[in-house]
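Our preliminary data section would be incomplete without showing what the modeling component actually yields. Below, a chain of 241 amino acids is followed by its predicted structure, encoded as tokens that our downstream tools consume directly.
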Amino acid sequence: MVLSSANDNHFQNLYLTFEVLLTIYFELKNIQLSLYDCMVNETPANQVILETETPNLYVLPSHVDLVGAEIELINHPNREHILSAVLEEQKKQFDFIIIDCSPSLGLITINALTAADSIIIPVQCEYFALEGLGKLLNTVKIVQARLNPSLQIEGVLMTMYDGRLRLSNQVVEEIKNHFEDLVFNTIIHRNTKLSEAPSFGKPVIMYDAVCTGTVNYLNLAKEILQKNNLTKIKNEDKIID
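Predicted structure:
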């Protein structure tokens, strides 16, 4: 996630996704160019970025061709810094650049970590998620040591939480004991609306503005803004109870 100060009360946001399905989520049709073209063919990002129906939200879409990009880029000079170069000019245009990574830890994800100022680590409240977390943290340390010394962990985000399950509570407790202040206060609960919204091509806040999923993510956004001193909302204030 790339952060800069906002010029007014409305943040300009660029959502960059490595996931083809999330491009479909925004109902972006007849896409001619994608992130693949930026990384492989050196197409300028401003020729690829698309405006969405959501105010102040723009998308740099993905394409199925990106799956094979790692092979095409393997012999590229400075291959870990390709995405950094793609986004350099965009940092001046947007207040937030959100890079949505796939679960793999290949070259494309390494590019994202090299380009980012900070990383949000989502952790599902399940046992096997803890094993994957260890591998990710090791990768982050390598990137910090060799490629991006300024990379910070913005926070650890607990997701798919079900308070009725003992395992969910055990995972949350273990993560909080290990990461302490790095764990976001906001926890994302399991919510059917979060699963339904993509099928209607809408962000959950536009699909159901008062569901648990919407409330959780609004409060997460507030928490991130507070952490970076980009809002006047007080700590004790929640966007929605």
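The two ends are 27 Å apart (CA to CA). Residues 1-8 have pLDDT under 50 and may be disordered. Preliminary results of this kind motivate Aim 1 of the renewal.
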